[in-house]
Amino acid sequence: MQLLMRSQVLRGLWVSWPIYGSLHPHPRHLLARPFSRTETPQWGDYEIPKEFNFASDVMDHWARMEKEGKRDPLPALWWVNDKGDEVKWNFQELGDLTRQAANVLTETCGLQRGDRVVVILPRIPDLWLVTVGCMRAGLVFLPGTIQLTARDILYRLQSSKAECVVTNETLAPAVDSVASDCPRLKIKLLVSENNHDGWLDFKTLLKAASVDHACVKTKMQEPMTIFFSSGTTGPPKMVMHTPELALRSCLPSTRQVKKLTSSDVSWCVSDPGWILSLLESALEPWNIGACSFIHHMPQFNPETILKTLSRYPITCMIAAPSVYRMLLQFDVSSYKFPTLKHTVSGGETLLPEEFEKWKKATGLAIHEVYGQSETGLTCAVPRGMKIKKGSIGISIPPFDMQIIDEKGNILPPGIEGDMAIRIKPTRPTGMFSGYVDNPEKTLSSERGDFYITGDRGSVDEDGYLWFLGRTDDIINASGYRIGPSEVENALAEHPAVAESAVIGSQDPLRGEVVKAFVVLTPEFRSHDPDQLTRELQQHVKNITAPYKYPRKVEFVPALPKTITGKIKRSELQKNEKRRNL
Question: Which single residue of 115, 128, 151, 467 could bond 163 by disulfide (Cβ 3.0 to 4.6 Å)?
Answer without folding.
Answer: 115
